[in-house]
Amino acid sequence: MTPITTHPSVRITPAIPARSSDPAAGETRVLLTVEEAARRLRIGRTTCYRLVASGQLATITIGHLRRVPVDALAAFVRDRRAATDTH
Predict the structure, then answer these.
(1) Predicted pLDDT of residue 36
(2) Which residues of 19-50 are buried (b: 16+ CB within 10 A; e: fewer)?
(3) 57 falls in which pLDDT band (50, 70, 90)?
(4) Do 32 and 40 touch, CB atoms closer than 8 A?
(5) φ, ψ for residue 66, nearest 5 deg
(6) Is the backbone of residue 42 left (phi > 0), alpha (psi -120 to 50) or beta?
(7) Which neighbouring-strand residues pair with 5?
(8) Pick from 66, 64, 75: which is nearest to 31 by CA?
(9) Dist CA 64 CA 81 (whole Å)
(10) CA 31 to chain centre
(11) Residue 60 pLDDT > 70, yes or no?
(12) Per-residue pLDDT averaged across 46-75, rounded?
């Protein structure tokens, strides 16, 4: 990348687009890490791990990895809404 020179003492380098770790930024994923699921749900990582441990948020295991299916997030929200609607 060639720097842009505007003045002999000032060099401006064109910006390189930052990589986004947000799956919603143009990338479609089927499985998420627990941390990614927490970010999508806008909850804390520890809270998300508690939901997984209690069985409220479905996960699958691949080898030694635990992943949250994207559709499990929608099911979790749907179940929570149904639980609050009945009270």
Answers:
(1) 97
(2) eeeeeeeeeeeebbebebbbbbbeeeeeebbe
(3) very high
(4) yes
(5) -105, 125
(6) left
(7) 11
(8) 66
(9) 32
(10) 10
(11) yes
(12) 97
Would you say the C-alpha torsion 67, 69, 70, 75 has a positive or negative sign?
A: negative
Token pair 């999508």 is found at 40
Beta strands at 60-62 and 65-69: parallel, antiparallel or unpaired: antiparallel
Nearest-angstrom CA–CA distance, 29 and 73: 13
- How far apart, in whole angstroms, are the C-alpha atoms of residue 72 and residue 64? 19
60 pairs with which residues across the strands?
67
Query: Would you tell me how many other CB atoms lie within 10 Å of the CB of residue 59?
Result: 18
Q: What is the mean pLDDT of residues 67-84?
A: 94
d(CA 54, CA 70): 18
- Length of the chain counted residue by residue: 87
- Residue showing tokens 């749900």: 41
